[in-house]
Amino acid sequence: MSDPSLDIFVEALPPRMQIDYGVRAEERGFRAAWFPEITFGDAFGPATATATKTSRIGLGTGVVGIWSRSAVTMALQAATLNELSDGGCCSASACRRAATSRAGTGRRTSGRCAQCAST
Fold first, then answer.
1. Is 64 helix (H, G, I), strand (E, B) or coil?
2. What is the pLDDT of residues 18-69, one digit of tens each?
3. Domain residue limits, the chain
4. Which of 16, 41, 56, 101 lies 20 to 30 Å from 48 when distance is taken between CA atoms?
């Protein structure tokens, strides 16, 4: 693949296929893979499993249901994904937090999160 700025939105697949697509997306040069919580299960499981099998691609949860889990549970899941992806977890709130934490420093975040690195 020649354009490293493309992301893939992995949806409407069983979890094992989502993981496979995430790995294949990295092999083909995609910048990030997004795992929404639309069908077949939650977003964090496949994204976290993909994190353990990849090293470069940014990983995001896309859309997740905030009404079905507590804020603490959501934060714990995001922290686990971020840890297992060496800083590659990306969500809108993670990007905002990263941008806020480095405001005025001129530094980019470490890790492989394409969205946070570009803000």
1. coil
2. 999 999 999 999 999 999 887 778 899 999 999 999 999 999 888 888 888 8
3. 7-118
4. 101
